[in-house]
Recover the amino acids of this structure.
């Protein structure tokens, strides 16, 4: 409806503005409110506690693994290196003790005595552990020997074969005061060739005998099986150190 003001103009009657609810709550349309209740009922019906646990576990599994703190990585790496050193010491000591105990004059030709076994094994393994670690993509991901497969054990033994000739020559140079020119002329592969002969089929009796005396059950046969593989692999990877022609 309209009314006339003092100047005779017709104006619309002003309607009072609708005030918002005084309780501060949003007023929902009844239809939308029914829809929300239906959704809520559907969720309660379909998503049980077991389903929630299943979805949460799936989300957790999809998360990328958290990086271990640096101090924990360093501790794991140190523990792995210590165990590889212990494993390598047992293997190389078995090699050298088997060579020293073998018949046929090999030990005398190599200048190898039982007194040389321990220090030569320690020096060889110390070099092998370092080079094995340097070749790892992630040092903290290198498994311990007990968890490693045959391929990883062979890879470590390849490094032992690689460093054995130089460790032996270095020990002879320091112990016998050999002139450096004679040291350079000494054959670096003689000890590897002799070792290959000691683990050949039908010729590993000396290693088995020493392995039994060392009380290392179950490991001697594995060493005898893996050593020829490691020597052949070392000859392919490090031909300047291990001459491939030394093996039949």
């Amino acid at each position: 409806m309209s009314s006339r003001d003092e100047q005779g103009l017709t104006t619309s009657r002003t309607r009072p503005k609708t005030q918002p609810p005084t309780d501060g709550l949003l007023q929902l349309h009844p239809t939308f409110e029914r829809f929300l209740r239906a959704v809520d009922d559907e969720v309660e019906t379909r998503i049980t506690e077991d389903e929630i646990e299943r979805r949460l576990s799936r989300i957790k599994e999809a998360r990328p693994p958290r990086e271990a703190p640096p101090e924990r990585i360093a501790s794991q790496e140190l523990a792995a290196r210590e165990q590889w050193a212990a494993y390598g010491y047992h293997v190389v000591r078995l090699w050298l003790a088997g060579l020293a105990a073998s018949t046929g004059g090999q030990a005398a030709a190599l200048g190898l005595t039982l007194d040389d076994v321990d220090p030569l094994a320690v020096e060889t393994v110390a070099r092998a552990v370092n080079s094995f670690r340097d070749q790892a993509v992630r040092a903290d991901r290198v498994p311990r020997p007990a968890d490693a497969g045959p391929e990883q054990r062979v890879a470590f033994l390849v490094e032992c074969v690689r460093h054995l000739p130089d460790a032996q020559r270095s020990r002879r140079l320091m112990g016998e005061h050999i002139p450096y020119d004679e040291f350079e002329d000494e054959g670096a592969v003689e000890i590897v060739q002799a070792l290959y002969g000691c683990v050949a089929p039908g010729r590993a009796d000396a290693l088995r005998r020493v392995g039994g005396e060392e009380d290392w059950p179950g490991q001697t046969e594995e060493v005898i099986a893996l050593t020829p593989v490691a020597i052949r692999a070392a000859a392919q990877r490090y031909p300047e150190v291990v001459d491939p022609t030394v093996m039949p």
